[in-house]
Design brief:
Mean pLDDT: 82
Shape: flat
Largest sheet: 2 strands, antiparallel
Number of domains: 1
Structural class: alpha+beta
Helix content: 55-70%
Number of strands: 2
Length: 105
Amino acid sequence: MRLVEFMNGLYKNEWSLYQNHFCPTMKLIAKEKINSKYKKKYDKPQTPYQRIMTCSDIDAQKKKMLEEKHQTLNPFALKRIRIIDQKVKHILKLVSVTFSMSQRS
């Protein structure tokens, strides 16, 4: 139970903010089958934050709120302080304790 709480906290806070604001991904635009192989076409790499900001379906007020949040984030500070790394190490310690205890039973 404690492990789930730590993991949920990490994903809800630091990890999702870091991934959504600073980690670009390539989105699949088209996939065409040529004989037995597929030819895939990808969009240019963008973060989910960038995709939302360029989307016309998103409300301007929500975009403004996201932009304000984005301005407060600093990926270098997260790495320097190592908040994410510390939480992952703590989770891994709990996993190893849980795993070794389950092996004894």
